[in-house]
């Protein structure tokens, strides 16, 4: 391991993931004190010296917004405590679906999140499976954009499903599916859907043959689970032998978990990029901690991240 001095800390919403990452690196999670006062204000302080050290701040900043603000406070505290470098480890970036103006008089929320994070003092960001890669361009600091792809591929291979068919839930996910296909050498399909309003699909159809095949839907996130459950039901109606899903970010808003358990989906594999994962029924977690730990290890040793970025962990 490198001799560069570093410490790993986690905000209050990411203690479990932070501990897992630190354990992968043979380290103890650092002492970061996070408190909420009676009036709702957040307070953050480091319980040990970080002067001259590289600080990795692990944060799961999905809703509520206090998780995001706690991260800003932790970054600012690290800067004021003379950390040499502050690296924000953010497996999930909120507002990643608001990367452009969908209509007049609207904000570009993902750009605002990037601006605030940099203003707080972050030197670098490590994140996973951005909804849109163009979000990297909102940052003036380095962004290490990682993918769960290789970990999911290895997991999928362990299932040894015959007559496998990968399915993208939309045309935007075709690039992701092709990367899986290169290693799995299997059939693929794509779902064409029309949306009238956010989170509500008015029409859906499958392009490709799924009859008699074990179909695996691959996507970056599940929110209300309406689309993926409707897609799974449609796939089974078209004669598929079974349908599963691999999705990185388990947002699970509204009654998403109930929808999944009531759907034709046999299993849904998600990662622990957000701090609310309920592993019951059909949902199983495949942790991102080994991937993040490997990235940190290579970063400290000035090693290449190219293999990881290209599904080559």
**What oligomeric state do the depicted chains represent?**
single chain
Strand order of the largest sheet: 10-9-8-11-12-13-14
Order of helices and strands: EHEEEHEHEEHEHEEEHEHEEHH
Bulk shape? globular
- CATH architecture identity of the largest domain: 3-Layer(aba) Sandwich
GO biological process, one term: 5-phosphoribose 1-diphosphate biosynthetic process
EC number: 2.7.6.1
Keywords: ATP-binding, Kinase, Magnesium, Metal-binding, Nucleotide biosynthesis, Nucleotide-binding, Transferase
InterPro entries: Pribosyltran_N, PRTase-like, PRTase_dom, Rib-P_diPkinase
Report what the structure shows:
The chain folds into 2 domains: 6-146, Rossmann fold (3-Layer(aba) Sandwich); 149-287, Rossmann fold (3-Layer(aba) Sandwich). Helix 1 packs across helix 8 (289-300) and helix 4 crosses helix 5 (174-184). A 7-stranded mixed sheet has the order 10-9-8-11-12-13-14, sandwiched between helices. The chain starts with 5 loop residues before the first strand and ends with a helix. The longest helix has 16 residues, at 65-80. The protein is α/β, with parallel strands linked by helices. 30% of the residues lie in helices and 27% in strands. It has helices at residues 15-24, 65-80, 109-120, 149-159, 174-184, 226-237, 256-262, 289-300, 306-309, and strands at residues 6-10, 32-36, 42-46, 54-58, 85-90, 124-128, 143-146, 164-168, 187-197, 200-207, 214-222, 242-250, 267-270, 283-285. A hairpin with a 2-residue loop joins strand 9 and strand 10 (200-207).
Tag the structure with descriptive keywords.
Rossmann fold; seven-stranded mixed beta sheet; 313 residues; single chain; 2 domains; alpha/beta; 14 strands
């Amino acid at each position: 391991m490198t001799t560069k001095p570093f410490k790993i800390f986690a905000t209050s919403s990411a203690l479990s993931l932070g501990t897992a990452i630190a354990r992968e690196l043979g380290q103890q999670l650092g002492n970061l004190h996070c408190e909420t006062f009676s009036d709702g204000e957040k307070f953050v302080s480091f319980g040990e010296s970080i002067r001259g050290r590289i600080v990795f701040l692990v944060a799961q900043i999905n809703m509520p917004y206090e998780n995001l603000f706690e991260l800003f406070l932790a970054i600012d505290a690290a800067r004021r405590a003379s950390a040499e470098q502050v690296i924000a480890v953010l497996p999930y970036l909120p507002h990643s679906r608001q990367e452009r103006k969908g209509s007049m008089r609207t904000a570009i929320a993902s750009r605002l999140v990037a601006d605030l994070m940099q203003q707080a003092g972050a030197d670098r960001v490590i994140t996973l499976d951005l909804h849109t890669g163009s979000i990297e361009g909102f940052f003036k600091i380095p962004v290490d954009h990682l993918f769960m792809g290789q970990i999911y591929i290895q997991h999928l291979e362990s299932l040894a499903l015959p007559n496998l068919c990968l399915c993208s839930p939309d045309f935007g996910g075709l690039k992701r599916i092709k990367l899986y296909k290169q290693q799995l050498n299997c059939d693929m399909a794509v779902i064409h859907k029309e949306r009238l309003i956010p989170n509500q699909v008015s029409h859906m159809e499958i392009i490709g043959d799924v009859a008699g095949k074990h179909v695996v839907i691959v996507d970056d996130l599940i929110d209300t689970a309406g689309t993926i459950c409707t897609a799974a039901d449609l796939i089974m109606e078209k004669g598929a032998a079974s349908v599963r899903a691999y999705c990185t970010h388990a947002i699970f808003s509204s009654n998403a978990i109930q929808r999944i358990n009531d759907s034709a989906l046999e299993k849904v594999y998600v990662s622990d990029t957000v701090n609310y994962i309920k592993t019951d029924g059909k949902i199983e977690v495949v942790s991102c901690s080994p991937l993040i730990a490997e990235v940190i290890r290579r970063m400290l040793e000035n090693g290449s991240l190219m293999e990881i970025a290209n599904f080559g962990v």
